[in-house]
């Protein structure tokens, strides 16, 4: 059972969480619990790190981790206290105590190894509930505290579920599942009963904010069934042996009725850069994307035309909006090595992505979208496709219209009651 920041935002909510745990324990389940920091706590800790710095521009990531990992330590202890208050045998575990061994990429460490044996033994022998701090681990060699990157508790939970060979990893959050798209944009969005790992991976990477991308990746690799559900459902009203409302992220084999399109994701945090009139010859793409990669800028959609005369062509790509100016600066600096006429760019662009495993075996899925958007006079600036998704870059102003149009087009709207 994993509980996110809003679910543990204060001691009342922590008690609510404890009641969810008690229900499962009383039903005879052996559970491990992973908690996030209280809502806002990690942001506060990050702010303090930044405020502590006056002379230097960047801080020592090892110390940053020492600070930000504390948020989860507090909630793990508080939940253990609350569980004990309900007469449940419980204890807290910090990442270094289990231990959760990680790489030394401080602030974005990767989990390398977790030994679940101790936890399993304690369930069996003492019915002891383990309450584990999410987000943190310890570097294998230096012994220093590491963190897994923002939103990392999801990844902690899935990794621990794999380590103790759990039947399921329940992610309790402030929404009751994964929706066909953001219900704030499309009120007719439906909650999905099931979604395949690969689809969820695409949804999460393309803008849906339900889970950390890496946690889904990990679930896919270790085949950990992940169940996204709400912590705000009253703990007592749920049948611990039944199927509560929520979305199961699982292997595609487990999904009997597969739709062609499962969901639509969108992101407004995109920027477009066009490099005009570059030489159409070997090495040019490397000259452009090499320096961007060195600056750790994540390039997403890339479109290059075939030049009409075999001499020059344009190359367009997208980067996160936050990296727009930095990307331009990098390209200005590399201008001599690349050789181009000018740079054009736009930040008022959005990426709409249509996702579904069924696309593998259905032709013409994207063509339908092009028609529907054309009928609404929405211009498409760039297109990319993969086996199970396609993404369209459009003007931000049309985001909602495009998402609604595509949602209806692929039959995702909830039937009218
Ligand atoms: N507390 C961390 C964060 O806010 C980790 C998490 O909540 O998943 O990013
Ligand atoms: Mg989270």
Explained architecture:
The structure is a single chain. The protein has 417 residues and is an alpha/beta fold. Helix content is 33%, strand content 24%. It contains 13 helices and 18 strands. The strands form 3 sheets. The protein has an 8-stranded mixed sheet with strand order 3-6-2-1-9-11-12-10, sandwiched between helices. Strands 14-15-13-16-18-17 form a 6-stranded antiparallel sheet. Strand 17 and strand 18 form a beta hairpin. Helix 6 (153-163) runs parallel beside helix 8 (213-222) and helix 7 (197-205) runs antiparallel to helix 8. The radius of gyration is 24 Å and the shape is globular. It binds aspartic acid and magnesium ion (MG). Aspartic acid is lined by residues 4-5, 36-37, 42, 71, 134-135, 150-154. Aspartic acid (ASP) binds next to helix 6.
SSE arrangement:
Elements (H helix, E strand, L loop, with lengths): L1 E2 L7 H16 L5 E4 L5 H12 L8 H8 L1 H16 L4 E4 L6 E3 L8 E4 L2 H10 L2 E5 L2 E4 L5 E3 L5 H11 L5 E5 L20 E3 H9 L7 H10 L3 E5 L16 E4 L12 E17 L4 H11 L7 E3 L7 E9 L3 H10 L1 H4 L3 E14 L9 H11 L6 E5 L2 E7 L3 H11 L8
Parallel strand pairs: 1-2, 1-9, 2-6, 3-6, 4-7, 9-11, 10-12
Antiparallel strand pairs: 4-5, 7-8, 11-12, 13-15, 13-16, 14-15, 16-18, 17-18
The structure holds aspartic acid and magnesium ion.
The site of magnesium ion (MG) has 5 residues, from helix 6.
């Amino acid at each position: 059972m994993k509980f996110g920041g809003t679910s543990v935002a204060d001691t009342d909510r922590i008690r609510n969480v404890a009641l969810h745990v008690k229900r499962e324990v009383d039903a005879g389940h052996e559970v491990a619990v992973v908690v996030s920091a209280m809502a806002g706590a990690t942001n506060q800790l990050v702010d303090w790190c930044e405020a502590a710095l006056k002379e230097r521009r960047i801080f020592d990531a090892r110390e940053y981790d020492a600070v930000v990992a504390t948020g989860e330590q507090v909630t793990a202890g508080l939940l253990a206290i609350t569980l004990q208050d309900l007469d449940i045998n419980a204890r807290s575990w910090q990442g270094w105590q289990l231990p959760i061994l990680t790489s030394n990429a401080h602030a974005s460490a990767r989990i390398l190894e977790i030994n679940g044996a101790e936890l399993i033994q304690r369930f069996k022998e003492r019915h002891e509930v383990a309450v584990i701090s999410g987000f943190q681990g310890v570097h294998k060699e230096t012994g220093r505290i590491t963190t897994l990157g923002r939103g990392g508790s999801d990844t902690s939970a899935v990794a621990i579920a794999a380590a103790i060979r759990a039947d399921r990893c329940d992610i309790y959050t402030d929404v009751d599942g994964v929706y066909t798209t953001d219900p704030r944009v499309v009120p007719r969005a439906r909650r999905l009963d099931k979604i395949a790992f690969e689809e969820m991976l695409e949804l999460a990477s393309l803008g849906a904010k339900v889970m950390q991308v890496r946690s889904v990746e990990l679930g896919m690799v270790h085949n950990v069934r992940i169940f996204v559900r709400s912590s705000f459902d009253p703990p007592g009203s749920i049948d611990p042996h039944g199927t509560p409302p929520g979305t199961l992220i699982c292997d595609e084999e487990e999904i009997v009725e597969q739709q062609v399109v499962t969901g639509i994701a969108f992101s407004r945090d995109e920027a477009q850069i066009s490099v005009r009139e570059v030489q159409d010859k070997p090495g040019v793409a490397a000259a452009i994307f090499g320096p961007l990669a060195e600056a750790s800028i994540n390039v997403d959609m890339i479109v290059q035309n075939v030049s009409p005369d075999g001499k020059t062509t344009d190359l367009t790509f997208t980067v996160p909006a936050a990296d727009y100016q930095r990307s331009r600066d990098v390209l200005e600096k590399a201008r001599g090595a690349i050789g181009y006429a000018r740079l054009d760019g736009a930040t008022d662009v959005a990426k709409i992505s249509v996702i579904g495993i069924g696309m593998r075996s259905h032709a013409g899925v994207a063509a339908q979208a092009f028609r529907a958007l054309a009928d609404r006079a929405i211009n498409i600036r760039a297109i990319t496709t993969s086996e199970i998704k396609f993404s369209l870059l459009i003007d931000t102003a049309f985001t909602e219209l495009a998402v609604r149009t595509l949602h209806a087009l692929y039959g995702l709207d909830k039937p009218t009651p």
